[in-house]
UniProtKB/TrEMBL annotation:
Alphabetized SMART domains for the sequence: FCD (SM00895), HTH_GNTR (SM00345)
Protein name: FadR/GntR family transcriptional regulator
InterPro entries the UniProt entry points to: GntR_C, TF_FadR/GntR_C, Tscrpt_reg_HTH_GntR, WH-like_DNA-bd_sf, WH_DNA-bd_sf
Alphabetical UniProt keywords: DNA-binding, Transcription, Transcription regulation
Pfam families: FCD (PF07729), GntR (PF00392)
PROSITE patterns reported for this sequence: HTH_GNTR
Amino acid sequence: MVRKRLSDRVADNIMTMISIEKRFFPGDKLPNENEFSEELSISRTTLREAIRILVTHGILEIRRGKGTYVKEEFEVNNIESLATFADVKINARDLYEMRLIFEPEAAYYATLRANEEELGRIIEYGKQIEQKILNNEDRTEVEQKFHNSIVKAAHNEFMEKLMPVIYEAIDKGVILSKKKELAIKDTINDHNMIMEFMKLRNAEGARSAMKIHILHAMAELGIE
């Protein structure tokens, strides 16, 4: 496996600060060179190289005499804009591994703790996803709402803080699955299985169903 240069890894870290940690938003100025290089424990030369990488990919811009900024027109939530950045840290495999670690447990606790209103919301979003798929419509937003409603029903504030990572994975998965009929079919079946276990208040079943759902997606999208 080819080892990344330090500047590439630093560019990945800055990208994470923008797209996942939401530390910097479009139009925001990055810390000055001395402060940022010290924070990242790197030389100013390495930081400059990393910034050049991100400038090349249209993520940052250098305003002469003012500093380095996240480009105003950079769309943080547009995963397709990130796809041009080949070395980006937030790739599909890493994101889905995070889902595999996190979401089955969220489904387990949501099944135990969800009130009837929360459970009804999860079921409704599941139905909307199926309808979007059958109508060949973009389901990204409602898919995010489905998984977010499960996490919220777990009533664990720290789980909720991980949702930006889950959103990135869902965005990527929807894009990759558009031309994969089996992945789309399994999405419907897996969601129905998760919802059935949740309606029965079978927490172990919901945990297993969520794990199966994510493993199906990883296998069918070729990101195992």
